[in-house]
Amino acid sequence: MVKGIIFDYNRTLFDPVNKSLIPGAKEVLDNLSQNGFKIALMSRTSDKTKRMEQIHRIGIMDNFSHIQLIQKDTEDKGFHHLKACADKMSLPASELAVVGDRVRSEIRLGKKLDMLTIWYKAGKYSDEMPMAEDEAPHHTITQLGEVIRIVRD
Asked: How many domains does the chain have?
């Protein structure tokens, strides 16, 4: 049973082109929070202070029990970043889901940790098809609201 969800930020919750939340993102986060799910955010950024200000300004800061920021110019998202999120949430990987728009990043990392993986197949990386079993998501969605149904089942 899923008790916590780790979300990717850019192109999963936030549209960097339009500089706004993905449609339905706030409602999904609020619904999950109100129904007792722990939620974490994992994001690469070149300026951690500005990213935190942005998260606060768009009104989603209070939805997260943990925010993991990764320095964009020095690191890619790695196994240890996702593991750090899981550890901060105090939940075993078997009770966590990861939601992201990249099969070669969030999905691959989540599968490596034996988490439930949900590929948000929309936008820039929607044509990036899995090339190996470790990139094949457990679920594929095209609307963010579908996350709620998946983690409640």
From this structure: 1
